[in-house]
Q: What sequence folds into this?
């Protein structure tokens, strides 16, 4: 659990530096970008390793139907993630599509995982995404971009389907079957 928590800290602190300690972050200059990226990469690695190696401590047992709700929310989370990477008509519909995607992902996984490590990981990421939106909204105004070309909407669908398929494949390779038999 220690590595998982350390990983979360190394993920959260560098992300929030720009908002909470702007002077420190700007004093680091461009060289600091590499350090920030390294800390984020190490944090992500520690979260993954810490989560996979954490002992299973059962806190609650989610009902089996939650798997279907999780899968539905995950399709929406992946679609919102895809929206952030396309320039079609959906561009500018949402201010923080990637953070909204993380919030949906974390919430969906909290519905189906009742062990302590999952609560720490997904709860921590949900906390990070919620606070990040608050910090960004307080610091910056948003000029909504104009909708993009409708001819590029196909890319949204492709990114959604391919990303969801990759996520399902990774889960299955790790021995987690997202679709119950």
A:
């Amino acid at each position: 659990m220690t590595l998982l928590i350390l990983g979360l800290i190394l993920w959260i602190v560098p992300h929030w530096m720009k908002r909470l300690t702007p002077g420190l972050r700007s004093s680091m200059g461009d060289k600091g970008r590499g350090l920030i990226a390294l800390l984020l990469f190490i944090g992500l690695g520690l979260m993954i390793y810490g989560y996979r190696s954490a002992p299973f401590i059962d806190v609650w047992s989610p009902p089996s139907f939650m798997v279907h709700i999780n899968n539905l929310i995950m399709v929406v989370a992946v679609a919102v993630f895809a929206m952030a990477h396309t320039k079609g008509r959906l561009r500018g519909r949402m201010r923080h599509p990637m953070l909204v995607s993380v919030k949906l992902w974390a919430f969906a996984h909290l519905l189906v995982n009742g062990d302590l490590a999952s609560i720490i990981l997904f709860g921590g990421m949900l906390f990070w995404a919620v606070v990040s939106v608050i910090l960004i909204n307080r610091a910056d105004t948003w000029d909504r971009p104009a909708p993009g070309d409708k001819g590029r909407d196909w890319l949204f669908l492709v990114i959604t389907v391919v990303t969801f398929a990759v996520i399902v494949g990774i889960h299955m390779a790790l021995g987690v079957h997202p679709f119950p038999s």
